[in-house]
Amino acid sequence: MMMYETERRHLIAAITDLIDWRLLDPAGGAVSMRLADGNILMSCTRLAFDRWKVSLRDFIVLAPDGAIIEQTGGLGASGTPVHLDLYRMLPRAGALVHTHAPYTLAFASLGVAVPSVTNRADTFGHIPCLHANDIMVKAQFLADPVPLDLPEGTVQRPDVAAVNLLEYRPQLEEVIAPRAGELERHGLAFTLYRHGAFTVGRHLEETVDLMLRLEETARTSLYQAQLTGGAVFPNPVYRHERQTYDDATKVTPVSSYVTGRDLI
User: Using CA atoms in the order 213, 219, 223, 228, what is the torsion angle rounded to 10 degrees?
Assistant: First the structure.
């Protein structure tokens, strides 16, 4: 009998909702949750290739360091190190959702923060984009490999792991880890350059809802630009520049918003 059957069903229900809301598709993604005993239950690699036709067996149970506790399907996806790092850095994190949702990905493709233009996105605070030149990092690693401490339970793609461990881990430590206290009040969100989005919540339902909120504000931002001829109206209270209410009438042209000034 496999471990954590109830929690596996819980994850399947969340994945079904993410698919129904067009947030999760064969482009990729991963969903995980922290279990009561501290272990991590995570969707397996290749589920996206299988069009997310997920069964109870399509999950892997990992120790906090990535060691395999129970493997009933494949290994964890290549982004497993990011999941493990976030659980380590954020003690209140109960679940993570990673998707390639299309509107959020548009901002990630430019390497800029997602603006808060809806009240449902306000609780995120700043939504940064972490940046890495993955093409260059992978090429350098393949040409001159360096030792990497790969988790046992992740798919063994060291060139991809090099991007996560050498480039994104330091940025998570610098940008996301200091915000751990915010999880006492609300969830967090960020994107990876040209890759996709992550939401972090205290439990699975919250984390799924956060991804819906994130995609909603990204979509609305792009619609704003169409309606205004290129301007986006971010919420002045939650601007990274800490603008005041007096700035509420000011707008940010898309042409200037996406010049890279919000790059990490």
Answer: 70
Write down the pTM of the prediction: 0.86
Dihedral sign for Cα 153, 156, 162, 164, please: negative
- Which is nearest to 261 in space by CA: 121, 113, 77? 113
State how beta strands 188-192 and 129-130 pair.
parallel
Contact 233, 217 (CB under 8 A): no
Residues 138-153 as b or e (16 or more Cβ within 10 Å = b): beebeeeeeeeebbeb
Q: Burial-class residue 179 by CB neighbours within 10 Å (0-12, 13-18, 19+).
A: middle
**Residue with structure tokens 């992550």?**
198
The residue type found at 190 is F
pLDDT, tens digit, 9 for 90 and up, residues 23-41? 998 878 899 999 999 999 9
